[in-house]
Description:
9 helices, globular, alpha+beta, five-stranded mixed sheet, binds ligand MTE, Sulfite Oxidase, Chain A, domain 2
Amino acid sequence: MRLKHSDVTPEPVYLNRRAFMVGAAALVVAGGASAAAAPPEPGPLKATPNPTFRVEDPPTKYESATTYNNFYEFGTDKGDPSRRGHTLRPRPWSVVVDGLVAKPQRLDIDEVLKAAPLEERIYALRCVEAWSMIIPWIGYPLSVVLKRAEPTRKAKYVEFTTLKDPEQFPAQKPGLFGLGGGLDWPYTEGLRLDEAMHPLTLLTLGMYGKVLPNQNGAPVRVVIPWKYGFKSAKSIVRIRLTEEEPKTAWNKAAPQEYGFYSNVNPTVDHPRWSQATERRIGEFRRRKTLMFNGYADQVASLYTGMDLKTLY
Ligand code: MTE
């Protein structure tokens, strides 16, 4: 079975055949020549390894981490982001931090790069589709940027918004929603404020000693290693502090399958498949999935008193 988020897209949207066919035809015409060009090779990015945040397992091959991707703005196929990623222009870029904050910010990407010392952290990434990778990310705690903006006492949640620009993300073109799995653009994700302030939550600017490749969410994304990968929004343009739980792209598309918390939990199956085990990219045997993706000692206390079975 092929596990694709698009399999769960609500029927009225996904089965809009006419729009899908028109869209697919347009893509063949429009994307023909440029689709072959690979994104430019990212330059080096210096960072200091942080020994507190590492896993024993060897990192996934760079080639796999940059060619087997989920980035539905480029299409639903794992190879689409690396094939089509060149259309994203990660510079110039700025990130707005606003909402319930005393000091709203608009940070140029160069300011984001300099806001704190860059660390290399080796994290496990567990996709809700039951595959996983080990990735050496480069970044610093998201809390650095949040604290700068000074969240007010009302702020309870953080919403992340990915760039919306159909010129840069082909699957966002109107009428092409079959290509983007039926997601509503822009892609949004969210965390509770204490989750966002947790030291593990990484504002991420690079990987494998390089600037973040386009297909992995250039120029800036978040990585939340104890949650399913879809929480880790790519190519972020806005970080908004809110009082209400933010709406999230996958929850809107399939609320019965993707919840707000989405903590990795081997005891709560996806409605259509087991989450007890996972396929580590590059390995043949399946591995057991760990509670909170192996980060339980650091994050379980965030959920004291909450029913983890219904947190999906
Ligand atoms: N962010 C955006 N904007 N669009 C997406 O489709 N996919 C998510 C997440 N962030 C996605 C996204 C999913 S399902 C996963 S598993 C990870 O990105 C994959 O990150 P990677 O390709 O760098 O491994």
